[in-house]
Design a protein that fits this description.
Blueprint lengths: L17 H6 L3 E5 L4 H5 L1 H7 L7 E7 L15 H18 L4 E7 L1 H4 L5 H14 L3 E3 L8 H7 L1
Parallel strand pairs: 1-2, 1-4, 2-3
Length: 152
Amino acid sequence: MHFSQPLSAWCVPDGLPDKEALARTTLLGIGAHHDDLEFMALHGVLTAYDREDEWFGGITCTDGAGSARSGRFADYRDEQMQAVRREEQEAAARIGQYSFMAQLGYPSSVVKQAEATPLIDELTVLLEAMRPRVIYTHNPADKHATHVGVLR
């Protein structure tokens, strides 16, 4: 398997080996941005929480560089914001007891492309390793181009 980010950068909250964490995933959220999963796939997070027979896994596709900046983040550079968003998402995975949390780190500009081949290939490999029962992702009527890119 080839991934855009090294597996060591992934978060598996309970420390299970990566391949086993993927294989046990029954509910999967695939979102564009770092906070999308907790909004659109909360049902899956809560369904799997504190259970051994259901496991929620999360994938975010973008790198967080375009995150809004105000308050304490007003002067953050893209690299700093990416690190903040990554840690926030890993914290959500730990609190929510996710099976795994993969942050693929693509720029939004790539995700919006009709033929985002590297992302498509990576998601295909992940889906084949998991075979989740339910997949949560963005609404086709969404007006956010990056959300629609992930859905597509």
